[in-house]
Write a structure and sequence with these properties.
290 residues, alpha+beta, Jelly Rolls, Proline Oxidase, Chain: A,  Domain 2, 2 domains, seven-stranded antiparallel β-sheet, five-stranded antiparallel β-sheet, 25% strand, globular, binds fe (ii) ion, 2-oxoglutarate-dependent dioxygenase activity
Length: 290
């Protein structure tokens, strides 16, 4: 796992609650890359390429400053965190992200963009602590605690889940660098940077042959009408069992093959390549049209 804790801030719960109340009142809309998630997934852009309040698409700014959206004036505390903790010269995008009773399928980010993958620096400031919310990064599953600032290696295969109904709001701040950099350069306030906070690693059960056989038996269940549900179900397995998140797609391909439906096999291979392989900028994918 390359993801790690960068620092920690003490959250002012009173001011945070006021900002979160505004975010809760913003209507939920279809998200960019909505095909990656089910359940409740709500992203609200605070800074982006255009300044438009409904522009949720991450784009490379190539040195141009990120623009504040109309939401910023309603979340003064979050804006203060963004502008005082981080080096806004590097800011590409800042958005709040909430996930409830939902999973984001294993995927890699930034593959449709231009820079070297190591030039993108995605951070998460966890605003609320939902005990059943986890992130995965390659071989590790972590629980981010409120106030922690994480570097999330979004170029690796990763995923997120919240098994509960508790709100799990996080502030996702994307920065980008040209050339080599020290991660301390991400911060305007160097005092928040620390490398000595131990992460909360989520313990998982061993992934056994019996468990794998149980998963492959889904070939007797899968059909075009539940293909999407099976994908989301399989996406949750690696949170409980010690297995790589990319196996999600190998199982989906295998059970589709065993079920004998070539269209499902093709779709399973395509969603695998789309999510963790290469995809074109703005390319979309449907899990429900055949
Ligand atoms: Fe991601």
């Amino acid at each position: 796992m390359r993801s790690h804790i960068l620092g920690r801030i003490a959250l002012d719960q009173e001011r945070l609650a006021q900002d979160l109340a505004h975010l809760a009142a913003v209507p939920t809309v279809e998200e960019e890359y909505d095909e990656f998630s089910n359940g409740f997934w709500k992203n609200i852009p605070l800074y982006n390429a255009s300044g438009a309040s409904d522009d949720r698409l991450y784009r490379d700014l190539h040195g141009a400053p990120a623009q504040p959206t109309g939401h910023v004036e309603h979340v003064p505390y979050l804006n203060e965190i963004i502008t005082t903790v981080f080096d806004v010269e590097r800011l590409q995008m800042a958005r709040t992200r909430n996930l409830k009773n939902a999973v984001v399928i294993p995927h890699r980010d930034f593959v449709e963009l231009d820079r070297g993958l190591d030039q993108y620096f995605r951070t998460h400031v966890m605003l609320e602590d939902s005990p059943l919310a986890f992130h995965s990064d390659d071989d590790t599953v972590i629980h981010m605690r409120a106030g922690e600032i994480w570097y999330l290696d979004a170029a690796a295969v990763h995923s997120a889940v919240n098994f509960g109904e508790f709100s799990r709001q996080s502030l996702c701040v994307d920065l980008a660098f040209d050339g080599a950099f020290d991660e301390k350069e991400a911060f305007a306030d160097a005092s928040v940077y620390t490398s000595d906070v131990s992460p909360a690693i989520h313990e998982r059960k061993p992934f056994t042959k019996e468990r794998e056989a149980g998963i492959l038996a889904l070939s007797g269940v899968i059909g075009r009408e539940n293909f999407r549900d099976i994908l989301f179900l399989l996406s949750k397995v690696h949170y409980t069992y010690d297995v790589h998140p990319s196996e999600t797609y190998e199982w989906l391909v295998a059970v589709s093959k065993e079920a004998g439906d070539d269209k499902m096999v093709e779709k399973a291979e395509r969603i695998r390549d789309f999510a963790i392989g290469a995809r074109a900028f703005g390319e979309r994918f449907s899990l429900t049209t055949w």
